Amino acid sequence: MRIRVVTPIITESFGPLILQEFTAAARSDVEVTNVFLDAGPASIESEYDDALAVPGILAKVRQAGEEGIDAIVINCMADPGLRAAREVVSIPVIGPCEASMHLAAMLGHKFSVLAVLDRLVPQFEDQATAYGVKDKLASVRSVEFPVLEMEEGRERLSALLVEQAVKAVQKDDAHVIILGCTGMMGLAHEVEEGLKKRGCPVPVVDPAIVALKTAEAQVDLGLSHSKKTYPYPPEKEIIGY
Amino acid sequence: MRIRVVTPIITESFGPLILQEFTAAARSDVEVTNVFLDAGPASIESEYDDALAVPGILAKVRQAGEEGIDAIVINCMADPGLRAAREVVSIPVIGPCEASMHLAAMLGHKFSVLAVLDRLVPQFEDQATAYGVKDKLASVRSVEFPVLEMEEGRERLSALLVEQAVKAVQKDDAHVIILGCTGMMGLAHEVEEGLKKRGCPVPVVDPAIVALKTAEAQVDLGLSHSKKTYPYPPEKEIIGY
Amino acid sequence: MRIRVVTPIITESFGPLILQEFTAAARSDVEVTNVFLDAGPASIESEYDDALAVPGILAKVRQAGEEGIDAIVINCMADPGLRAAREVVSIPVIGPCEASMHLAAMLGHKFSVLAVLDRLVPQFEDQATAYGVKDKLASVRSVEFPVLEMEEGRERLSALLVEQAVKAVQKDDAHVIILGCTGMMGLAHEVEEGLKKRGCPVPVVDPAIVALKTAEAQVDLGLSHSKKTYPYPPEKEIIGY
Amino acid sequence: MRIRVVTPIITESFGPLILQEFTAAARSDVEVTNVFLDAGPASIESEYDDALAVPGILAKVRQAGEEGIDAIVINCMADPGLRAAREVVSIPVIGPCEASMHLAAMLGHKFSVLAVLDRLVPQFEDQATAYGVKDKLASVRSVEFPVLEMEEGRERLSALLVEQAVKAVQKDDAHVIILGCTGMMGLAHEVEEGLKKRGCPVPVVDPAIVALKTAEAQVDLGLSHSKKTYPYPPEKEIIGY
Amino acid sequence: MRIRVVTPIITESFGPLILQEFTAAARSDVEVTNVFLDAGPASIESEYDDALAVPGILAKVRQAGEEGIDAIVINCMADPGLRAAREVVSIPVIGPCEASMHLAAMLGHKFSVLAVLDRLVPQFEDQATAYGVKDKLASVRSVEFPVLEMEEGRERLSALLVEQAVKAVQKDDAHVIILGCTGMMGLAHEVEEGLKKRGCPVPVVDPAIVALKTAEAQVDLGLSHSKKTYPYPPEKEIIGY
Amino acid sequence: MRIRVVTPIITESFGPLILQEFTAAARSDVEVTNVFLDAGPASIESEYDDALAVPGILAKVRQAGEEGIDAIVINCMADPGLRAAREVVSIPVIGPCEASMHLAAMLGHKFSVLAVLDRLVPQFEDQATAYGVKDKLASVRSVEFPVLEMEEGRERLSALLVEQAVKAVQKDDAHVIILGCTGMMGLAHEVEEGLKKRGCPVPVVDPAIVALKTAEAQVDLGLSHSKKTYPYPPEKEIIGY
């Protein structure tokens, strides 16, 4: 099985971490490849960044389809371009936010999301609503830690995540925690340990890896998104793309 | 007051109709100008079209902000790029779908939307949910009439709209009708008359004109979207835009 | 265009403020007149007050309809008699609470209402539910300031409003503030400035003026409430009115 | 125990039926008395009728409180003035619509209401929402039978009720039926029998009698509405009442 | 009228309290009998306890049906086996949680439940959702007081209930309190007094007694659960029961 | 990885089909074993059957935990005993209904469930509500085909499933279909083909296999249900188990 990760930014320095984590988590019969965008933003931290990433994502999604890839993971918690991408191809396209919210909904009574920035709180609430699991959302909390500082400051990031996760459990009645950025990959275990030490032993979900596992499962099941929801786009003149 | 209409397609032949209808509806002290996109699709009938229109929209929105325009109408019922556009500027940016759904919610018990294509039905249901008025949505019905045929076939389009509106009233208990495409502008009165003749006298909402009136009202009120919901995008490297 | 404000109390000393604020906010081609009730309470601060105001309101609404007025604003945040009034006439009848909640829902992620009295908190929650925008309501907070003290104590009222608005933004995640009494008219700008100084720059909505602008827009649009939702009352014997 | 029925109309010819049915249903230790309004409409079939009945209802409620009555039933499915009445007194005030919707919610998966007139359909949907049981409402259907014809045409009314109840069960998946007007009192058993014959054996709820039983139960329990929700109205000048 | 209380545990020492409280609350023409389980847990404080109580409950329910009993109360706030029990018989089967949540929904704006243990908080939230009254739930709070210590420690329990009830009123905006365990029977009045002294005069609901009164009312009304929702179980081979 | 299927009935003749389908679907490194109950019903088609299966399920779940099994699938769409089972062990326990509803929610706009019997329709609606995905449920339809006839009548069953699935797509706007009984395993592909031939090409979900894949994914992810939602049951006396 071949799974393509589309990391929807232009900051290629994240590449080694991404490949290492996805490869470690993938089943032995799964080949994971990662691509960055040709055009787009350095990171996605706003609706604006998100919007400018999408055309580049769609190009990579189409290309993956033409290469005969089995499934695609859009490697960002904003799930940028998820719906449009599903129109473009018929192979599974997985968004880490959608996949991890549905998994977390099964793991416990309510879940909280730890966002990178306070400005993204409304966006996660809107995503929970759009994905139909709003009633399972306990809260969204922020660590105020810009994406592009993540490569360097992992220790500080980890401590901030534990701190906010403890508050989510103790004040917001969260029973499950979702890391709110795929750039936090590799930290779930550490945060889970930190929570245990603080007397809050709850599952911590790494959304990028959940997306990978959801992709594997859908390919195994021979299932993909409904083309009744995501029909191919009608042919028409388009300038600039 | 100066209001800028951003018609988010490249099909400039719609220009005269757009200017005529908006100008006729605008208050005497309001100057309306319309721009099309430099890059983007011929029409918006899918999530894919929508996604490829947004970067072009954001360029026009930024430009309007720099010109000192008072408010912006994004002239498409998909409200493409609405959230990102509000991040880019602080003047009001109005989406016809959002504005007309909230108005329709005030006019009667429940409203129905008449979409151009069946494939857009889920999208309107999702928009009603995202805008917080899902409980006021009676149904979404389609006339199956591609956008680019609208310039020629207005009579047939009008008949189809009446037909579906009657069904919305009689079968879905709609008390208000929203035309589901800004390309239907100028037809609301005709459809309302058609409904009256068929024994279903309910208000018919022209979303483009509602967006204009909402823009006028917000400028008058000295109000615009909350920058707490739509903060300016963080500065960062972006390739290709 | 002629707009009739029905201020549903008997306390005529509010008259000059009302006329001044509405006239200042109205478009130049709009003539605003205000009437008080012949029978009813001195102020509306309970369901009981509300109920005893309604027959008087309906008389004034009917009279406005007979005078050929273009639209009516019921000048109270309880929207007393709104549904019955719409049955009585076919011209637009606007409730400040309904109109401002729908506008606030468009301006940001969630809004809070600042009520005059704690006892009115449930009522505003119920109104948000009835108007279909409950998911956009962040909270209702009270300034505990009786309506009839408002004429004298505007400075203290303004300070209390800023205080509660800051709490709404910081504790309840409100992104937009609605003043919860039409007697607070003229204070929105001041409260907005106060919020800015306190580091919470969010829009503050004056519901009375929003109602006026909504009335202007509906008349411009040639739209009014659906008579399918608000049919004329059946003729029958009625004693006492 | 003394229970006061306030029948909120001026049509006293309904008196004997009302007394007979309530007395037959009341426990042996319960004394039921019925009063009509001094001022108000002949029947309640609109928001307008409802509004004009409320001041008269509040007068009768206050009087019942002063007489030392134990509980009050407002004998109309619109529950007119229910909230204001609860402010006026501390003894239980029961609305047949609220009481029967909550009972029906316990009896089966979903319930339908059979309204007298099509124009009341939105009102019942709004009441289910306001009472917090919207998810248990299967549908509202109408028999189109004006209230004031009920005294004469009970046989035809009964047939119409069975007809619509069958549709509610077969088309709308109703598992419980609520008669939508207290003027239908005495017909529940007949309609239940009719449903059985038509292969739809489901419970049929008589809302007036349910209100009586709810009143009895609350008095037995020593419970009444929360004065935190329904505090006494503040003292103030009121003209005309 | 004969009402059977099924107390779904094996701890028979609760027997005298149960009989005394139910008998004191029952109408004079009602005979209450209580049975414990032949097999099952000592108390119900988990989904596990609940599951192991249900077969024993169903045996007692069937037996009550065969004895010609008029209605059954399952005497536990988890309402264990409620749906299955209603399949087994056609006489009313009342769950204290369902009955008291619907009553509390009528008494005030929102209600809180005081659970015995923190681990039961999600369960009460799920029950409010399942019974269709989630929007009326203010909060669930716990007194952390194991069921089997209740017989001895009633004074301490009462103090803890007042403490949590005060928090529910002051912090969670509860307007009505429901005692969250039928083992708390007899304490409602005391807790109500305690709340009054602390400046929070709101109704306190004893769920066991509410269940009894609901059973009495349904028998009086000649109503029971819909067999369309709860049809008799199909005949089939079953091992072990 | 070792996965234990607990088929919660006593009808062991289903054994070969179950093993064959699960083994064919499992990854090569996964060993699947199946157990039936020692005590319980022949099939699960009511709340009553469900209740009598649960103690037997919990015994098998505890045993699987003691054997060092990695994850458990409860092989029935009623998800009987799911919550109690998760209290008993800390390894993942997967319910096919919960897992397939969350997957279907990701695959398309809305999904429908095809139940075996009409009497189970409310139960599936309640499950969608309990799992937090009610807004994604288009409808529940029944094939009226008793579970114990499934072994013989697979061809007729398959035809009935296609027939109801077509109606779900065409009348209820379902974009995804879930087979409503794990006894339908092996038929998803056939039904999907049937739908394609009838012009309704949408994904068909086999819930048993989805449960298996969800179990595999959770074990890979090192995740299981939150013990904050599902704490171990308190020790106490229990008679009969």
List the helices and strands and how they pair.
The structure is a homohexamer of 241-residue chains.
Chain A: E1 2-6, H1 15-25, E2 31-35, E3 40-41, H2 47-66, E4 71-74, H3 82-88, E5 93-94, H4 96-107, E6 111-115, H5 121-130, E7 137-142, H6 154-172, E8 176-179, H7 188-197, E9 204-205, H8 207-221, E10 238-239
Parallel strand pairs in A: 1-2, 1-4, 4-5, 6-7, 6-8, 8-9
Helix pairs in contact in A: 4-8, 6-7
Précis, in short:
Chain A has 241 residues and is an alpha/beta fold.
Radius of gyration of chain A: 17 Å
- Say how many strands of chain A there are: 10
- The helix/strand series of chain A, from N terminus to C terminus, equals EHEEHEHEHEHEHEHEHE
Distance between the termini of chain A: 30 Å
Strand content of chain A: 15-25%
The domain count of chain A comes to: 2
Strand order of the largest sheet of chain A: 2-1-4-5
The protein's oligomeric status is homohexamer
| SS-derived structural category of chain A | alpha/beta
CATH architecture of the largest domain in chain A: 3-Layer(aba) Sandwich
Output the number of helix runs of chain A. 8
CATH-defined topology of the largest domain in chain A: Rossmann fold
Q: What's the CATH first level of the largest domain in chain A?
A: Alpha Beta
| Residues in helix, % of chain A | 40-55%
Uncertain stretches of chain A: none
Comma- or semicolon-separated keywords:
43% helix; four-stranded parallel β-sheet; homohexamer; Rossmann fold; 241 residues; alpha/beta
Task: Provide a descriptive summary of the structure in words.
6 copies of one chain form a homohexamer. By secondary structure, chain A is of the alpha/beta class. The first copy, chain A, folds into 2 domains: 2-95 and 209-221, 3-Layer(aba) Sandwich (Rossmann fold), CATH 3.40.50; 97-206, Rossmann fold, CATH 3.40.50.12500. Chain A has helices at 15-25, 47-66, 82-88, 96-107, 121-130, 154-172, 188-197, 207-221, and strands spanning 2-6, 31-35, 40-41, 71-74, 93-94, 111-115, 137-142, 176-179, 204-205, 238-239. The first copy, chain A, has a 4-stranded parallel β-sheet, with helices on both faces. In chain A, helix 1 links the parallel strand 1 (2-6) and strand 2. In chain A, helix 4 crosses helix 8 and helix 6 (154-172) packs across helix 7. The longest helix of chain A is centred in the first third of the chain and has 20 residues, at 47-66. The two termini of chain A are 30 Å apart. The interface between A and F is large, with 47 and 46 residues.
